[in-house]
């Protein structure tokens, strides 16, 4: 395959993709992707990370063009995209493209919904642009993963900017040259470091990707140019940020096979590699009953990636607990919890959880798949039992149903905006392809009292 026109050929496909080109099953997954994203964005809307971000940018924000989901504030389009990107990721409860560990919707949906409030569009067109954006970021991610990720880049931020640019550029009806420019403008803004995991900056990455991707599309629309080979050039994105460049992953089967149809959704609000441990420990809690209080030791055998990503031995904050397999095991065993309430500052410092967390050990085993775990529990009387999880709930083998997604949405959203707003919002999200103006969803996410105060 030619490696001299990857960016242009990808841009050509983005420009030409129409709703009827997308299979029904992929469109259905697109609705699920958006539904899950809205629930996560509203669920995270009152997190202190979002409060801090708003306090930092509000004095400099422009015209009130788009809303922050679940809140009364309205900001200019780029900053609304930024804040919604942060809130949708801050709970680490959002969607995951399991082949690359990209969280696709955060950058794409955040940028696109903010732009759609500024330039209204139908739900059908929105869904098409959303799927195009997700497809672009996941294919670019495939082309550089895992080497790109192993170098320390947070792939959701670095490739999410391409997805956001593609989605908003598609919405703006950019031509092929403009779309190539948009991808180039996105490429030169790609950022996000894995060093930031466990801090507020992790959720900043999809927010920045959303903001920068939207900006790339609007700049390209205005004639702002860039290299036309931003992805594949010797000093372009793929060569600078990765030792792997497989452009067949970008162009091969484009429009025929769909990465956007492979999205998955988290049942637990933390790093995806911890999910098998939580699933297994929750099952053990159900089986053991009061015997969980006599546990003397918990021994985990996991893939090396689990400890690399989530090996925080003594987390002090809620954000840090999301990257501690030791905390997650203890919380699942003692409280049966893997929802956002399991990963709070309170939980991080709860004496009973710390006591059990200190009894949890973990060893790396390359023979164990990264989506699996072996859990061995020893009791005070010397008895030992073992639980093996081959694939956790939420994986491709055990995907979340629409009903499960609805329960997840309702649980986190109701805590922020109440039951009535949540029910109305969920109904609108499921009807996305039928809506005449998708901005209705953003407006419906704000309780009347907050909306009136903002106005």
From TrEMBL:
Give the MmgE/PrpD N-terminal domain ranges.
8-248
Looking up InterPro entries in the UniProt record yields:
MmgE/PrpD_sf, MmgE/PrpD_sf_1, MmgE/PrpD_sf_2, MmgE_PrpD, MmgE_PrpD_C, MmgE_PrpD_N
- Record-level Gene Ontology MF annotations: lyase activity
Q: Which residues form the MmgE/PrpD C-terminal domain?
A: 268-431
Which family does the UniProt entry place this protein in? Belongs to the PrpD family.
Protein name, please?
A: MmgE/PrpD family protein
